[in-house]
């Protein structure tokens, strides 16, 4: 089994006089898998994301990215491998055109100019935005902005992309667009994907789900396993996603959803 990320008994607090916001959290992200982390606001999800690319460092435990421990000395190496897309795309734009913006992350990592030109094209094409190179990022729709943000991350050729509530500000169409885009990119480029969300509908297609509660891991498993733990979910005020409920009801009514095509 190859793990791309390993969290080993990680605890974190923002200040010494404040409570721990993560308590002995352990989990792995495998290469090529889509792991989704869900939980209420304040349960520690974003803190996990920031620890994964060295924006924060743990006070207890250790985090390995591709076998390398995240420390002050390794964060630049780590950030090349772990790209992050945040909730508000406007905060991520620095360039006046889409092209400049995609170039910016690569400049930070000191990529050669020729490679940058190539990567601007391939990464924008991967998210279906290749006709927008000269556009101003701020004038794009919410979904298009997030696709450009994903392209900027892809251009650095990471092995893991983290989407931290990256669809939260979008309408349902924009959400679908982003989830489809990232899924296609992930499958085409053999990336690991970590999505952080409080929207349960968004995780039903993930390979694995972790439910966080007050800084601890509450549940972990396939979406099917996690969402069958109705009582444990209800205990922390989470409901089962609509599609899972529908599937259970259809099955109870003798109309199970066909999971494999019939021969
Ligand atoms: P989530 O992403 O699940 O909403 P966070 O990881 O953002 O949760 O936050 C976990 C806890 O850490 C919360 O109690 C939050 O108030 C606290 N917290 C987050 N960022 C900071 C910060 N910069 N300084 C102090 N406390 C913080």
From TrEMBL:
<dbReference type="InterPro" id="IPR030947">
    <property type="entry name" value="EcfA_1"/>
</dbReference>
<keyword id="KW-0813">Transport</keyword>
<comment type="similarity">
    <text>Belongs to the ABC transporter superfamily.</text>
</comment>
<dbReference type="InterPro" id="IPR050095">
    <property type="entry name" value="ECF_ABC_transporter_ATP-bd"/>
</dbReference>
<dbReference type="Pfam" id="PF00005">
    <property type="entry name" value="ABC_tran"/>
</dbReference>
<dbReference type="InterPro" id="IPR015856">
    <property type="entry name" value="ABC_transpr_CbiO/EcfA_su"/>
</dbReference>
<dbReference type="InterPro" id="IPR017871">
    <property type="entry name" value="ABC_transporter-like_CS"/>
</dbReference>
<keyword id="KW-1278">Translocase</keyword>
<keyword id="KW-0547">Nucleotide-binding</keyword>
<dbReference type="GO" id="GO:0005524">
    <property type="term" value="F:ATP binding"/>
</dbReference>
<keyword id="KW-0067">ATP-binding</keyword>
<dbReference type="InterPro" id="IPR027417">
    <property type="entry name" value="P-loop_NTPase"/>
</dbReference>
<dbReference type="InterPro" id="IPR003593">
    <property type="entry name" value="AAA+_ATPase"/>
</dbReference>
<feature type="domain" description="ABC transporter">
    <location>
        <begin position="5"/>
        <end position="239"/>
    </location>
</feature>
<keyword id="KW-0472">Membrane</keyword>
<dbReference type="InterPro" id="IPR003439">
    <property type="entry name" value="ABC_transporter-like_ATP-bd"/>
</dbReference>
<keyword id="KW-1003">Cell membrane</keyword>
<protein>
    <submittedName>
        <fullName>Energy-coupling factor transporter ATP-binding protein EcfA1</fullName>
    </submittedName>
</protein>
């Amino acid at each position: 089994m190859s793990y791309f990320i390993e969290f080993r008994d990680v605890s974190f607090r923002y200040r010494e006089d404040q409570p721990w916001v993560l308590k002995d959290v352990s989990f792995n992200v495998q290469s090529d898998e889509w792991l989704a982390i869900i939980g209420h606001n304040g349960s520690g999800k974003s803190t996990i994301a920031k620890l994964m690319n060295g924006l924060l460092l743990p006070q207890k435990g250790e985090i390995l990215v591709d076998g390398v421990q995240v420390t002050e000395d390794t964060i630049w190496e780590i950030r090349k491998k772990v790209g992050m897309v945040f909730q508000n795309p406007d905060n991520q734009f620095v360039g006046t055109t889409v092209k400049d913006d995609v170039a910016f992350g690569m400049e930070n990592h000191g990529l050669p100019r020729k490679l940058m030109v190539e990567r601007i094209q391939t990464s924008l094409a991967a998210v279906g935005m290749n006709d927008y190179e000269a556009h101003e990022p701020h004038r794009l729709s919410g979904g298009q902005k997030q696709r450009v943000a994903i392209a900027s991350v892809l251009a650095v050729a990471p092995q893991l992309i983290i989407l931290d509530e990256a669809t939260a500000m979008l309408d349902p169409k924009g959400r679908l667009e982003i989830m489809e885009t990232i899924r296609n990119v992930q499958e085409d480029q053999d990336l690991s994907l970590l999505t952080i969300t409080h929207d349960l509908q968004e995780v039903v297609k993930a390979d694995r789900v972790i439910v966080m509660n007050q800084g601890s891991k509450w549940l972990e498993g396939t979406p099917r396993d996690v969402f069958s733990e109705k009582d444990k979910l209800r205990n922390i005020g989470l409901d089962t996603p609509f599609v899972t409920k529908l599937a259970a009801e259809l099955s109870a009514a003798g109309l199970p959803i066909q999971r494999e095509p019939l021969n």
